[in-house]
Amino acid sequence: MSQPLRLIETSSPLPAHADAVVIGGGIIGVFTAYYLARRGLSVAVVEKGRIGAEQSSRNWGWCRQQNRDARELPMATRSLELWQQFAADTGEDTGFRRCGLLYLSNDEDEIARWARWRDFARTAGVTTHMLSGREATERGRATGRAWKGGVFSPSDGTADPAMAAPSVAAALMKLGGTVQQNCAARGIEVEGGRVSGVVTEAGTIKTRIAVYAGGAWASSFCRQLDIRFPQATVRQSIVRVSAVAEHLPDALHTARVSVTRRSDGSYSLAISGRGRVDPTAQLLRFAPQFLPMFAKRWRNVFPGGLEGIRGGHETLARWQLDAPTPMERVRILDPRPDAAAVKQTYDRAVELLPALGQAGIANAWAGFVDSTPDGVPAIGEVPEIPGFILAAGFSGHGFGIAPGAGHLIADLVTGEEPIFDPAPYNPARFKRSAWGQVADF
Ligand SMILES: Cc1cc2nc3c(=O)[nH]c(=O)nc-3n(C[C@H](O)[C@H](O)[C@H](O)COP(=O)(O)OP(=O)(O)OC[C@H]3O[C@@H](n4cnc5c(N)ncnc54)[C@H](O)[C@@H]3O)c2cc1C
């Protein structure tokens, strides 16, 4: 594991009973547990590896409304408020700042797309500023070049992927929630047609509510329960360079490369959408549903290698509850970064912002982005197993919208008025049709 991550200690014994068990200690799992605990429920989080060690610490940290699909915009907007509220309520630092996001372009079509999104966003009460050529060039002066146009979204921001999930887990523990690390959930117990317990490698926790927030492992876990959840992963790589003396934009996107300032002053560099698809049995199983998405992104998605099989998260195997599972074999999905992408990303970033060249590459890592066929997450109770709530498939944007997703799940569990309409996320849509509209990224 080469990405920075705050390590937290969690030493409480496995509880025999909990009002709710959250499986998976990524950003979705810990925010869900936090909002449940705030409502007075006893909550246990079980994480097979370390809190935040998979996608949730490997991302850029962008928390954005900008260019969001209409189905996700309400969740994005509420999440930005909740990131701020979380810090005020708990004193825990996730590194969240409304620093604004800057998009620069010399491509008229891209600029026109952003303008269309601005018009749509206005109808949802979201402010974003289109930049003229002069304004874009001025805001992007660190690049030392002229731009035809751009966007600045002042109410968006970033949080720190190294700090966010562990900080939320720490806040949960202060509220009395328990967190087990190195503890895989192997399956679910069902009695009288609904969830009655979560079976872990360390014993069983009796509960009527199991929230599965297992990221890239979701489809193979669901398969054990005879739930069909179409999911595919793409391996994306990130480069980190140390702090430099010059003042660079906090969060800058261009079509060739994107640059994000981290809390410690270092920078994450990445090429938006670029990734490798590592063939697995699961990928073949769901390939027909994912063809429209891959067709839309073919310019940036390349064939991969054995990293998917090595990870084991996309196995079609069935496992037993009384023996080690693939999740205990691979505690943390830590795929190799794509060497070609690392070089290209660094070269492009230095070409865009020469100051970054002073620092050299500090480290690089990769993460498996887990997607649904329509690019919108699955959040909700699975009708086949009352009490089993799925929260996965965040399709490359789950970090920024995690507080809203966690709040929504707590609303659904406790029967309160949902913070926003849950209908677009209903997992049942994959039964009806897998060919829904593919979200824009
Ligand atoms: C390179 C990259 C860049 C990205 N950039 C952004 C961005 O800028 N903004 C944004 O909003 N999103 C971004 N994303 C997406 C975002 O990181 C994810 O959508 C989000 O982190 C998903 O969170 P999660 O909790 O669902 O999954 P994860 O963080 O993957 O966590 C799932 C956890 O569940 C655990 N688990 C699984 N099965 C079990 C089990 N049976 N028992 C116990 N534990 C289990 C795993 O060990 C893991 O820790 C990016 C992703 C990547 C990889």
What this model shows, in words?
The chain has an eight-stranded mixed β-sheet with strand order 5-6-4-14-15-16-13-19, with helices on both faces. A six-stranded mixed β-sheet has the order 8-2-1-12-21-20, with helices on one face. The protein has one domain: FAD/NAD(P)-binding domain. The relative contact order is 0.19. Helix content is 30%, strand content 22%. It is built from 13 helices and 21 strands. Strand 10 (194-200) and strand 11 form a beta hairpin. The two termini are 27 Å apart. The longest helix is centred in the N-terminal third of the chain and has 18 residues, at 73-90. It is α/β, with parallel strands linked by helices. The site of flavin-adenine dinucleotide has 40 residues, from helix 1, helix 2, strand 13 and strand 19. Residues 23-29, 46-49, 53-56, 58-62, 184-185, 213-217, 221, 236, 238, 327, 367, 369, 392, 394, 396-400 line the site of flavin-adenine dinucleotide (FAD).
